[in-house]
Amino acid sequence: MTTTSVPLALLGLGHMGLALANRLLDAGYSLHVYNRTAEKARPLAERGARVAERPGDAVTRGGIAITMVSDDAALDGLTLGPDGIADALGDGVHLSMSTVGPATARLLAVEQARRGGAYVSAPVFGRPDVAAQGKLWGVMSGAAAARARVAPLLDVLTRGRTDLGDDPAAASVVKLGGNLLILAANAALTDALSLAAAYDIDPATLAALYGDTLFASPMIKNYATGVARALSSHAPNDPGFSVRLARKDVTLAAEAARAAGASLRVAETVRAGLDDATAAGLGDADVTSLPLA
Amino acid sequence: MTTTSVPLALLGLGHMGLALANRLLDAGYSLHVYNRTAEKARPLAERGARVAERPGDAVTRGGIAITMVSDDAALDGLTLGPDGIADALGDGVHLSMSTVGPATARLLAVEQARRGGAYVSAPVFGRPDVAAQGKLWGVMSGAAAARARVAPLLDVLTRGRTDLGDDPAAASVVKLGGNLLILAANAALTDALSLAAAYDIDPATLAALYGDTLFASPMIKNYATGVARALSSHAPNDPGFSVRLARKDVTLAAEAARAAGASLRVAETVRAGLDDATAAGLGDADVTSLPLA
């Protein structure tokens, strides 16, 4: 059986899941797909993907199931709920690419191992447009043999990955920490550009300064440009990383820290800013819309 | 009169001031220097710099005076205090490279203009070792003719600069905003690497991930590496950007925002972290020592 003929399912067809599915179809994989609202699967069906009506129907015992859903509850339901994938997958591999907490990762790893299979935690950094180009960066952890088995898939879906070993919680923690860094930079850019605007300094000038020379970072530049745009246009930016999902991630980071006896100062502040943005009706806007809250 | 024969003074010989003085001597400038404790001037005297006993004695009417001191009070005293440089400089240019608040910049600009001269605000990003290599990044604002006059000096002292126009407060505000970004990133790295350490994940692995791939930023990498070192060694890092100076800068940013009717959420959190570090005896350590507080 060649790599592309492994029974492969992809569950969760939001912006990220759709981008991943299209990459896999481009690379010649046969795909079973599932989404809670089936209509999102239609463009994939037109490309030859088979659409399942229930999660468990999408996966094959001993195969690989990729999941990309919005939060821990959705992942838990999809995996262990009625018609969930855990039993149907059996001794297969659950390649979980959602951003979830370390407790969920450990629980699902134990449950899949009880069924003879494995859970690999492989959340990714990047927005849907980056995913469509295969330029995401991944972090990965879980049982070694299962990590080796999903490696060819991750080669298609990402430009590279950091391997964090056997503990399925590790990749979750590193992903949450990375998102915290992004959100703290975004909140600090909101401070710095708002301060500058209060002194009649052009936010776009600053976005270039901070992104090109001071941090010399494409990511800082992207976020700074978004914050500058929100400040200048007084209009929210379209979501790539929404306030709602950001709030979920920073809450998970704070919970994961508390569970391990650490306390995070910046995380609480970033969350307060996202709370305010939500209250201001910006929940579905991009996080770079914070200056409008 | 060639550029290098303009009467030139440099006042304030801490680590940054000394590095700037040596660059100017290397480039062939004649220098008058002043420092509150004269003994720091000795290595410069051995290289031909003339050492003044009082600030006003270091500068020449119509010449250029560069200042690099630690805070607003020191700059104010050096400029307008007894034996200060403002009167002695007269219609010359005060090239102020310290990180100070916008109110101080505007006050000193008005005072120097009253004497027929000008104040150019030109704070720089970078540590003393970067200054020694001429690789600082500058931001500059002030009267146009005075900016043109000091340009050759900044060409020697920096690798480039962002010109922010006539308002002497602008460069101060942008410098404070930039330091806020750096300190927020440093505080978020402290959160993220502490969270990871609580899950037994190697901080050095994360420093590489966040610096090389996620942000792809030399500055993030430097700070992440420092935070990782503090976490692993349980020892503070030697100061490049000390907790004490960082606290001063973030306080100035918050004050400048309040004066302009803006409020900064991240700044207050970053300051609280620096307060804790100070209380823990880390005031003279590098800001990357925060995980030890």
Outline the structure in words.
The longest helix of chain A is centred in the middle third of the chain and has 31 residues, at 168-198. Chain A has helices spanning 15-26, 42-45, 55-58, 72-80, 85-89, 102-114, 128-132, 144-157, 168-198, 203-214, 218-233, 243-259, 265-279; strands at 8-11, 32-34, 50-51, 64-67, 93-96, 118-121, 124-125, 136-140, 158-163. Chain A has 293 residues and is α/β, with parallel strands linked by helices. Chain A folds into two domains: 3-166, Rossmann fold (3-Layer(aba) Sandwich); 173-292, N-(1-d-carboxylethyl)-l-norvaline Dehydrogenase, domain 2 (Orthogonal Bundle), CATH 1.10.1040. The radius of gyration of chain A is 20 Å and the shape is globular. The mean pLDDT of chain A is 95. In chain A, the strands form two sheets. In chain A, strands 3-2-1-4-5-6 form a six-stranded parallel beta sheet.
